[in-house]
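Quick one:
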Amino acid sequence: MMRISLAPHYRRSLPLAGMGQPTVPMLNPAGARVVLGDQVDANGLPVPVAPKPNTLFGPRGLCFAPDGGPFFVADTGHHRLMVWNSVPQEDNTAADLLIGQPDFFSEGRNAHGRVGAASLNMPTGLSTDGRMLAVADAWNHRVLVWRTLPEHSNQPADLVLGQADFSSGIANRGDAIAAADTLNWCYGVTIAEGRLFVADTGNRRVLVWNSLPQCNGQPADQVLGQADATTRDDNASGVGAAIGMRWPHSVAVENNRILVADAGNNRIMVWNSMPNADGAPCSFVLGQSSFDGNDHNRAGYYPNDRALNMPYGMVIHNGTVFCADTANSRLVGYPLDDLGMDRAATGLAAQPGFSDKGDNRWRFAARDSVCWPFALAASGTTLAVADTGNNRVLLWEAGS
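Output:
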């Protein structure tokens, strides 16, 4: 099957005149230092996004290992995990390892075979604490866990969550209701502060393991977004407000504070401390003026510094909450120590002003533009962006 990049040749571009006032950029205005996966001809025409050691197709997840260790990217459209042994320093660097396919030139869900301990079907969220690696294998409705970081291609996972064993891949294990040990289109995973958090997107909830799981199919200890572990209705069966979720996609954690990108409600939910009961209400939200709001860009066509439009990815780093405001094709930032209900973003990247939107600013892709970014990761001064609509990953340095 032939596919083409969604973004032709990128080039350094000048900011467009926007409806909003320009802001001090939170990332280097020159754009990404390194671009991975870009596949265009010199004349700017797109080329087929065929699987190779240096191509990507709709990447939706990434993470850094600490201390300059491996860099991981979920090459979602090719159903594989790409691994660089160290953080790439040049454009289009080839990956060193892969998981999910027999070689770098193959693709297909579960490698056109059966579900197994090293197969993948639409992998998305990734997380590591430097020892353990977790992968949200979304369309196999499971999370794969490696107790130690993979050291060779197609190293099988050690644990599976959401399924009883490595050979199963059915949503909620085939049941109409959810359970504490089932998953349904799980898109996000986070290892933080000794816990495991999973954005169980299709069940409209976040599952929490209070300690890192030790056995296959281990049930979660707690659920957020639903009143109990069996309910899976949109917005907690209509309760919504400070409790329910619609399409939660990622989780960020810092000093026991929990943030959930509730993409379907166009907001970020924030718990000021780790909840101790199922269905605990969040403390406040970003992106909406109240708990009851859920419209894209607060019911406006253009965004502003308080609005969000399907935020999918988040990362907390050096005192800032970075958010991939996906459908606005921009990145926004909030100071972690000044969060509160309906707080305005203070940082911006990929658009000239807070009232600007548009995939690649309605132009060809540039080193400082994005198209539907889905995930973020950070290490040192570098923010990694899964620039999904452009079939690439950006390694972008913080602004000075």
